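Hi there. Long-time user, first ticket. I'm pasting a complex I've been working with (about 680 residues overall). I'd like to know whether the download I got is complete or cut off, because the file seemed smaller than I expected. Thanks.
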Amino acid sequence: MTEIEETSQKEETKEKAKHKSRSFRNLSDIEIKRLYKPQDISEFKYEQALGEPGKYPYTRGPYNNMYRGRLWTMRQFAGFGTAAQTNERFKFLIEHGQTGLSVAFHLPTIYGYESCDERSLGEVGKEGVAIDTLADMETLFDGIDLSKISTSMTINAPATILLAMYIVVAEKQGVSPEKLRGTIQNDILKEYIAQKSWIFPPEPSMRLIVDTIEYCTHHVPQWYTISISGYHIREAGSTAVQELAFTLADGFAYVEAAMERGLHVDEFAHRLSFFFNAHNNFFEEIAKYRAARRIWAKRMKNKYGAKKPESMRLRFHTQTAGVSLTAQEPENNIVRVAYQGLAAVLGGTQSLHTNSYDEALCLPTEKAVRIALRTQQIMAHETGVADTVDPLAGSYYVEWLTDKMEEEANNYFDQIEELGGVIPAIKKNFFQKEIANASYKYQREVERKERIIVGVNKYKSKEDSTPDILKIEDEVALKQLQLLSGVKKKRDNAAVKDTLGELKEAAQGTENLMPYIINAVRDYASIGEIIGTLKEVFGIYREDSIF
Amino acid sequence: METNRKIKVLVTKPGLDGHDRGAKVVARGLRDAGFEVIYTGLHQTPKDIVNTIVQEDPDAVLLSILSGAHNALCPKIMELLKEHNIDDVLVAVGGIIPEEDKEYLKSFGLSGFYGPGTEIKTIVDFVKNNLKR
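Hi, the file is complete. Here it is re-exported in full:
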């Protein structure tokens, strides 16, 4: 044997060994086979497993025509600084063809603190727009016709208050509540599980959520009352299967809570929507969305007795995975986002937010936001992927994986049920531990190079590319504090005191709190004041710090 | 310092930021690397953090912030530490810290600035090599 032959043989063995050890497991740790064949889906029956699009069990999509009828809504999440600054960004996005608004609130609003609270130090206008009172909300939607646009508000613990403000702003524009279209996130369960922006304990929080469902059912019928969110569960480090299972379990818990209030499932279920993540593993994500629709439809029909098709039809918004964006070579994120967005579209999403490439470094710049929106427009208009419904149906691999995701999600539902349901499972830290374990495992795999992240643990480039970044000036905080104290001077403080007193009294009973909150908002009570009043009755939540 | 004592690290989340994936992964990674780790959980004010430092006497404190509030919160923590005459604790920041803010934070004695994508080993080595006692 010559030396060259020997070397090449050695390399071949090495290569084979490497190949053997390389694992083909997706992000949910499901082993992927070399090839999928008809026998992998031997039980597959078209009508039961998929059905036509727009028909039970909706695996192929909630609508018959899907994107041929209407493209998905391109909905970029935006908000920073003062309401006036975000209002400008909204108008910029509308001018560039965006069809729905999505509001990011700053952290003090999310936690129900006024901008002048000690805890708001350094946070005012940083991660989103500062909203203290109705006055800020009036500025935020100045010149935007609320009868024409749909608005999604990423707000949870204080969702009742922001919805109340939106209703009152519309009222002042002359738009009646039944014309309003939009969503409040209003999903407190995933806050305890993953995102951590809770205020009250779970039980009063669930009451507020059912209050919004009940109120909207009667007064704001086109409003989506909860956006049941897997996005944050995934961002906290869960697997795709965990995202799917925990999100749907939360959904079941809301349905059960509303039914306990005495609502019939067909009265409110069609106003529940979902919000999923689009992460890196392409087919896994697609299978996740398809499985989600099928699981939801079955459960709504078989367990909750839904009769109306709309109650069984799961519709969802998708955002590409912020956690997958890298600070290293940030331009590569444009490509990641495009693949992730494509998975969401092939999975049949109703609306999509594509992340900006610079988000691992800062809040997105205008240039980065434009590229992100263009990514969707290119997909919609140039690639042809929206021309036919559910194009991957019937693929041995995709159908096998969809079944597998459903099966694994069902295993989780059983575990949650054994723990006594979602709230007891939260209190036992079940979800929190599952996610922390998955997230640590993923990190270890990346560090051992079992999972490759380009530009991070492989193909690292020496030169550092730092793009221009967006900075929120500290004047924003100052400006917001002036606005807030101005409002407090101008308003009728006696009226505020009265409406807050009425709210407190109602909170001590069992009445629906929405009308009381609307009254307080109309009198320009601040978020901090309203939440503070409710805290006196409901108390606050504390979590165990496990890691 | 004696050789067989475990290095004690406090991992904490100042401010209202809820992004705790990184902090938890780092906390567990440090624990697996043999450190004694305390994780405070979320929503800590500068006062809360300094009180914990006074009580627990860690060798190092790792602050995790992804909300953009670092310029307000981190210097505040350093000021409070000074008031307590604590100057032998390594205080480092991780999260999303823009380049131009690093110099500002350095002027208060803060270091680290590890962002997304950092390997745990890097943080382990950093803590070991930069202890002040």
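A couple of notes from our side: Strands of chain A lie at 73-74, 77-78, 100-104, 150-154, 181-184, 223-224, 226-229, 272-278, 316-320, 351-353. Chain A has 22 helices and ten strands.
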